[in-house]
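Worked Example 4.2. Consider the chain below.
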Amino acid sequence: MWASNLYRAFSILLVGSPVEIGSGYRWKSGLLRLVIVLSACFPYVNALYAGAYKGDLPPLTPLISGNGHIEFRREYKRPDYAVFLDEDGKSYVFQDYSSLHAIRDFVTEHPDQRLHVKGFILKNGEGFFWPTSISTIDGQILLAPDELSRELENHRDIWGGLLAIQQISLLPLWIISFFNVVKIARRLKKGEIQ
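Applying the procedure from the previous section yields the following structure tokens:
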């Protein structure tokens, strides 16, 4: 009986009339709808975000290796980005500017220092460049392969840490909505709502 009252109270809070919901019906019903929509949308938004990081990984995709410079660029009406300029004249735009923050100071302090960069093109050659390692020509590692690999895994995983953080952030809203459902269920039990 209590479970059926909870189910009915949930449906009343979701689509019921103001009289059934009681005082504050707009925010109570709106909060439940918002939390349902956000809970459903977060995985979809994460999948869209992760799409840029998809595709085969080396050795299934060609590994690019070369010496050159990394430039951090700012342009009007465009987000900041970074480019690897190979000695062969090719340029590769990095997928994730934020993954390079650890070496930005080094590059700024040593603008003429050549770097050895290994990486690949995401989305099976259709995307941007993802580094697998960045080091100086003499072998000083600036960004380690395991660190870059872990970061790429996190970006590709739509069900991982980001979704957990998003869902945990919704927990207080779910708790408030649950208490509102319980209040309506009590009113149903008392016969105040038909």
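The chain has a mean pLDDT of 91. Residues 2-51+159-190 form one domain. Compare this with Example 4.1 before moving on.
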